[in-house]
Structure formats: C-alpha cells, structure tokens
Amino acid sequence: MQNFNYISNTFSYYNKELFQDKLPEVIITISRDHKMSGMFQPDKWKSKDGQMIHELTVNPDYIEPYDIEFHQTIVHEMCHLYQYLFGKPGRSGYHNLEFSEIMKNVGLQTSDTGTPDGFKTGRRMYDYVIDDGPFEKAFQKLQETRFKTLEISAVKKDKVQKSGADGKRSKYTCSCGCNVWGKTGLEIVCKKCDVEFEENN
Q1: By 3-state DSSP, what share of the chain in percent is helix, strand and coil, each rounded to 5?
Q2: Domain positions in the chain
Q3: pTM, rounded to two decimals
Q4: What phi and psi, each to the nearest 5 degrees, are found at residue 132?
Q5: How many H helices and E strands in the chain?
Q6: pLDDT tens over the chain, length 201 residues
Q7: CA 53 to CA 85: how far, in whole Å?
C-alpha cells in the first residue's frame, strides 16, 4: 500500500505541475508481467455503470522513490494518457512525432537510445531530461523538500480515508489474487475471471 500511495501522489503532483490537472484518475497496478519500467493501457477497466477507466502499471523493480528515472517513468506514461485523451496515438505502441512533442513540452526528450543522438520516434522508446525544462524544475522542487511533498500528501490522504471524505482511495482484490488501486466506490470486474473485485476498506 505504501508503494501505491507514493505512485498515486507522484501522479497527482505531476498532473498539477506539468499537465494543469487535465488528466483523470487512473487505476494503478504493480506488475512485472510486461518486462518494462511502466505501461499505460487505455480503457482497461469498466465500471458497472459503463465508465471506462485507464490503467497505469509500474514494474516494482523500478520503484525507487527518490530516483529521477522512476519519476521519468511516471511522467512518460502520463504523456501516453495525455495523447490518448487529446491527440492521436501511434498504432501498436509506436511512439510517434506527436508523442515526442508532448514529452518535449513537459521537459523530457524521447530517444531510442536514451541519449541525444538517438531517434525521436519508434516502438521501444527511452527518454532523457531536458536541461532546465518543466520536468527538471518540478523534480528539483521535490528534491528541495526532500520529497516531503509526496510523503505529506500520503499522510493527508490517509486522514481523508479515515474521515470518509471525497478523495478516498481503496485497494481492490479479485479471488485470483490480482490487486488494483483506485478511487473508492468503483465497481470493476476482473476480465480474467469475470468476477467482481472486492473493495478492501
């Protein structure tokens, strides 16, 4: 749960700092299945009332809260979400020129090698930090507070959960052992089992 809180708070922080709070909440999962540091999957979940919910997956091997590469991973996947909502994503996971521009606007440069001499578009894509760009400045703000911004947010959200106020987040569990996290009150079904997830209060 601690990892989830940190990832969730990191998402919220960069949503405000880099995306003007335009991105909706997502279901966050932690999995090694895809052998990637992170992955965005649109419309992965469906509530009983028909609302589609996107998923952001993070590989637990890459969860290093104070490592800039972990933060790059979160923002990279958020850029995929932004493009899905407001642009035209490439086919079959292709990182197209539009995606590269979205990344550049938030302060990350796409590169198939992770260095300035790499191609900016392609199927498997890395990125590097643009000097003095929005992402670097946002990350430096966290460094200056020793990342307490995210930790304080986690404490506040724990208090919100106890009070039952809006903004509460919950863990959901399927009988097959799959766990996901999202806002409270979701009614979601596991596609693998066709069984409804149970909310753990």
Answers
A1: 40, 25, 35
A2: 2-165
A3: 0.78
A4: 60, 25
A5: 5, 10
A6: 467 788 889 999 999 999 999 999 999 998 887 678 999 999 998 877 788 999 999 998 888 888 999 999 999 999 999 999 999 999 988 999 999 999 999 999 999 999 999 999 999 999 999 999 999 999 999 999 878 867 644 333 333 333 233 455 677 788 776 777 676 777 777 766 777 778 876
A7: 12
